[in-house]
Every structure is written in C-alpha cells, then in structure tokens.
Amino acid sequence: MDKIKGTMKSFTWIRNAVLDNPDLNSSDIMTYLSLMRFKNNTTQECYPAVLTIMRLARLGQRTVYRCLDKLEQAELIEIKRHRGISNRYSILEPPKEWGEVPQETDPADTPF
After folding, report:
1. Cys-Cys with 47: which of 9, 86, 98, 106 at CB 3.0–4.6 Å?
2. Which neighbouring-strand residues pair with 78?
C-alpha cells in the first residue's frame, strides 16, 4: 500500500499532449498528475482533497485552485464541487486538436 490513503498505484500515466502543451506550466502539470494518481480507470473519476493535492504537487492552496480552474478551462478535467466534502474530478481526454507529439525514431538524434 502507498502512504497516500490506501492507494496501490506504483506509477502514474500522463499523455504526452498534456506534457507538451505550452499553455500548461509546471504547477498545472503537477496538479494534473496529482489527480491522475487517484483516477479510477473505470469511471475516470477521483476525489482527492485539496490538501492532498497541495501536498503531492508541493503547491499552495491558491495555486492549486488556480491550476484546477485552468485544467477545467483546458477541458482536461470536469469538477463537480461539493461543499464540506471532497470535490469529484472527472478526468477527460485531451482535446484532439492538441494532437500527440511524434516519438523519436532514432536514439542517435536525442540531444542527451
């Protein structure tokens, strides 16, 4: 078991389109990764508390709220807000117009 409230995931997937989007900064991506860590693969939903997101993303409360709003505007998540209990976050597929960045075909072309 993971240290975070009974989760058993040992890794978290993220779409390249999310990482490569120039409109998302590192705080946005860390917030998104924190949500992805708790995502139910069947329902595509998760319910982490903002304090949990803050701790995992290593961000302040106001920054997390700004990032959540930005991720919602970017159509990466939907938020169903609940007063007094954790919000429900639905993880959405990145918009098709973002595309995927092609993978390198020749390792010799990699700069490092």
Report:
1. 86
2. 90
